[in-house]
UniProtKB/TrEMBL annotation:
Pfam family, one: HMGL-like
InterPro entries for the chain: 2-IPM_HCS-like (IPR050073), AIPM/Hcit_synth_CS (IPR002034), Aldolase_TIM (IPR013785), PYR_CT (IPR000891)
A GO biological-process term: L-leucine biosynthetic process
Transferase is among the record's keywords: yes
Single GO molecular function: 2-isopropylmalate synthase activity
Ranges for domain Pyruvate carboxyltransferase: 7-202
Protein name per its UniProtKB record: (R)-citramalate synthase
Position of the signal peptide: none
EC number of this enzyme: 2.3.1.182
Biological classification of the source: unclassified sequences, metagenomes, organismal metagenomes
Source organism: termite gut metagenome
Amino acid sequence: MGESKKIEIMDTTLRDGEQTGGVSFVPREKLMITRLLLEELKVDRVEICSARVSNGEFEAAKMICDWAARRNMLHKIEVLGFVDGKQSVNWIQQAGGRVINLLCKGSLKHCEKQLNKTPEEHIADILTVVNHAAETDIEVNVYLEDWSNGMKDSPEYVYQITDALQHTGIKRFMLPDTLGILNPLQVIEFMRKMIRRYPNLH
């Protein structure tokens, strides 16, 4: 019998972004929703906020991290962070968090047009954050933002960035279809390419 596989569910309801236009939660609402997601629905992980957004988000993150730590669930609490040197990692650490979901550029277009950087420069910046996270005992997952367009238009860039990051201790590589452009067959095709090239990455 083959090795069993587990599907992990990470809920992003609490991270106020495009998917929740016009919606924001106060800290106590965020804590209540986190408790329901983890204790009632049994989701594996919850992304509770973006780092460095506001004092309100910081207070909510502190409240949730304190609650989770007392229930041995702190490893299930994640915060979206940015390639900004030490700033996001320090913000998460001060809030009591242990996991950063690091937002990196998953397409050459985003790297060059949004950041005005070469792939090599972006990789160096990512490694600075990853190394600082390791020094502060913060676990790192990586989002390859716009990965779907990256696989369509610049797969060599996707491979370059993943090659550079695969041995750094990053726990998960998250591959979003940021703009919702892929059909199911394309998802299968591109995921197969990634799995074949990186069979040991999570």
